[in-house]
Design brief:
- The chain is an alpha/beta fold.
- Helices cover 27% and strands 24% of the residues.
- Strand 5, helix 6 and strand 6 form a beta-alpha-beta unit.
- The two termini are 19 Å apart.
- The model has no long low-confidence stretch (mean pLDDT 96).
């Protein structure tokens, strides 16, 4: 029998979040981003949860092939493109598209004859300074791509650094859009700009953010890209990590809890022991007061998270006992709130879900 810790994956919520993304960009096509094992939800579940997407996007060439093997027939996009010439051969064979973001990739494409054309997404570096051609180099890269016989459609693409904060003092979104429009002036092809935050801010930016493709990621999984809570954005949690109390301790004033004796009781307390630890994907660095639900009642983490267990304050849950239900994040306990308390982001918590955790579709 498995331990009581379970991750419930809510496929209906995945479908609803995709519909929310598409509603923000009427007329645009949507890539459902399923990189990192569909943000910890499982690639096959991502494929089914986002069946209504116009394509699926990820970064792992082997998983792109898995999507084809599992029966996905719509477009597949490799967001980091190819890593060697063998990738290009497989992409051509299985009709997989890829981003091209550097001269080295372009040169590989020039010297690798392909049996059939592949579609590419030419990435511009508009201020993220991670991947892509600078605006002044973009037209020349486009011309080189267009001269390659085995290049099909070319999509014009960029990625936003701060779309969750429209007027970021270092790199506002409008400046990235301006650079993109300037660098693509006169170039044909569909446009792909918006990540989750960009999608959710499209109504505020209007025509300046016109796009043919959107690339929703975290919003599909019910996490917020920033600015507002996921609930305020109309998103539903797609992963609920739950467990049970496996022990209860009565401690007195001055008693300590957990490794390092970092938590000291100021008064008599009941401490609940939860079957969940950092080996399950819960962040070890989560501090005292990180929120947790026990029997539907909000309480807090106390003591240091250990490999297989963590401890909670049962002061507000007097009826709690061994077997009481615990929600670490998900329905009733927003993952982003847990992540913020732990000094991280919901993306990391989802992706860190451990293989040993039993997963159930809800």
């Amino acid at each position: 029998m498995p331990r009581p810790i379970v991750a419930h994956i809510h496929l209906a919520a995945m479908q609803q979040n995709l519909a929310r993304a598409k509603a923000c960009a009427p007329g645009a096509k949507a890539w459902g981003v399923v990189k990192a094992n569909a943000y910890g939800h499982g690639l096959e579940r991502g494929m089914r949860g986002f069946a209504a997407a116009d394509g699926l996007a990820l970064i792992e060439p082997d998983n792109a092939l898995r999507l084809r093997e599992m029966g996905w027939t719509k477009p597949v996009l490799l967001l980091e493109g190819w890593f060697d010439c063998a990738d290009l051969l497989a992409m051509a064979e299985h009709s997989i598209e890829g981003a091209v973001h550097c001269i080295e990739q372009l040169e590989m494409l020039e010297r690798t004859p392909l049996a059939r054309p592949i579609n590419v997404h030419l990435k511009m570096n508009t201020g993220m300074n991670r991947l892509g051609f600078k605006p002044g180099e973009y037209a020349a890269a486009h011309a080189r791509l267009r001269a390659i016989p085995h290049v099909g459609a070319i999509t014009l693409m960029t990625h936003f650094a701060n779309a969750d904060e429209l007027h970021h003092p270092c790199m506002p979104l409008a400046e990235q859009v301006r650079r993109f429009n300037e660098g693509t002036a006169g170039l044909p092809g569909p446009r792909s700009l918006c990540n989750s935050a960009g999608i959710l801010h499209m109504p505020e930016l209007g025509a300046s953010l016109a796009t043919d493709w959107i690339r929703p990621g975290i919003m599909l999984y019910g996490g917020t890209p920033g600015a507002k809570t996921a609930q305020e954005f109309g998103l539903k949690p797609t992963m609920t990590l739950s467990s049970e109390l496996i022990g209860v301790q009565e401690i007195g004033p001055g008693d300590y809890v957990g490794y390092g004796s970092r938590f000291k009781a100021e008064q008599a307390m009941r401490i609940g022991v939860v079957a969940c630890g950092y080996a399950d994907g819960y962040p070890r660095h989560a501090p005292v007061d990180t929120p947790i639900l026990v029997d539907g009642v909000r309480t807090r983490l106390v003591g240091r998270v250990s490999m297989d267990m963590l401890t909670v304050d049962l002061t507000n849950v007097p009826g709690a006992r061994v077997g009481s239900k615990v929600v670490l994040w998900g329905e009733g306990m927003p993952i982003d709130e847990v992540a913020a308390a732990a000094g991280t982001i919901g993306y990391e918590l989802m992706c860190a879900l451990a293989q040993r955790v039993h997963v159930i579709e809800a």
